[in-house]
Design goal:
By secondary structure, the chain is an all-alpha fold. The chain is 59% helix and 3% strand. The protein has a three-stranded antiparallel sheet with strand order 1-2-3, with no helix packed on it.
Length: 336
């Protein structure tokens, strides 16, 4: 990561779900526009009046269909894997229990199953290999569906441990809503596939376009690592902060991850955390509005100028801490 400033390192991986979603959306539009612009032709593999995605993809646009499916499947798998890696590195809110780690690993495994199913169904098209195509279509749907269920379950348990973290709650609700709608539509699609051909085709197009939005949720998930240093949200550090009664500080750091950089270069902070009373009057580990502190009502000395020594303790016996207010807090939490 030497060629990018720390606050921009997240762009090394957040583009993956973004590019995958764009590629999938563009592929679908190319297939749909081609079929409509050609006068809605009836392909050899069609049973009804409305073409399925695979009917159009098995014709002249098959190379595009294969490339689009391969990029989308790989992007989906990498997004799940990178999210797990960032949690392990402590740049996203860590898994606090083995249960969440197991759910994450299962999500990655079934994402790989879905990826393989998507790539193989594009290669074994419905015109030349109808039976294999439907098998791999089922593999894709089941793989992505189970991966979504395990991912949402993981988020549910993480958000249960950190109920104050707004971004986890938003991510959990967004993923759960989109995944729930797509799974219900997939069940309806499986029923209509054999009993009502044209409604099944419409549902397939809707599900496919909806999958774009599910892939996009990983863009916002990975972007939460913006400005967060390795280990800053690790399990060990979060537990240590909770044991020291600094759970509120941990929550604030997680809430502000991915926000705009502050004056000292850290996301979401004006001048970092203080261990005393900040200039805005909040007690205990609050923010310094401009780096200047003031004497408190109980005779405690607060943060002095952020560019000079910061002191915490009684006014008659100050304890020297590092110059930077955020560094003082990180040191008190046992983080280098």
């Amino acid at each position: 990561m030497l060629f990018l400033p720390h606050q921009h390192e997240h762009w090394l991986y957040v583009w993956i779900p973004l590019f995958g979603a764009f590629m999938w959306f563009a592929t679908l539009w190319a297939l749909l526009i081609t079929w409509l612009a050609s006068g809605r032709p009836r392909y050899v593999s069609m049973d009804g009046k409305i073409a399925y995605i695979s009917d159009v993809g098995a014709d002249i646009l098959k190379p595009l269909f294969i490339v689009g499916c391969a990029i989308t499947g790989l992007s989906f798998f990498l997004s799940c894997a990178i999210e797990r890696w960032l949690r392990h590195e402590g740049r996203l809110v860590a898994n606090m229990r083995r249960r969440e780690r197991v759910l994450s690993c299962l999500s990655i495994f079934f994402a790989s199953v879905g990826m393989c199913g998507l790539i193989l169904l594009s290669i074994f098209d419905t015109k030349r290999h109808p039976s294999l195509h439907r098998v791999f279509l089922l593999v894709f749907i089941v793989g992505v569906g189970l991966s979504a269920i395990f991912t949402v379950s993981e988020y549910r348990w993480i958000s249960h441990d950190f109920v104050e973290i707004r971004k986890l709650k938003h991510a959990y609700i967004a993923k759960g809503t989109i995944a729930g709608i797509l799974i219900l539509l997939a069940i309806a699609f499986a029923i209509t596939l054999f009993q009502a051909t044209d409604p099944g085709a419409i549902l397939e197009w809707i599900i496919a376009f909806g999958f774009t939005f599910y892939v996009l949720t990983f863009f916002f998930d990975l972007r939460m690592a913006k400005g967060v240093h390795k280990g800053e949200l690790s399990r060990q550090r979060l537990l240590a902060m909770q044991q020291r009664g600094q759970g509120g500080a941990a929550t604030r750091e997680a809430n502000e991850a991915g926000g705009p950089p502050g004056a000292n270069g850290y996301a979401g902070h004006a001048n970092g955390y203080g261990n005393g009373v900040a200039a805005n009057g909040y007690q205990g580990g609050g923010y310094a509005a401009n780096g200047h502190g003031a004497a408190g009502p109980n005779g405690y000395a607060q943060m002095s100028n952020a560019n000079g020594p910061a002191t915490v303790g009684r006014a008659d016996a100050p304890i020297a801490y590092p110059a930077n207010a955020r560094a003082a807090n990180r040191a008190s939490a046992g983080y280098p």
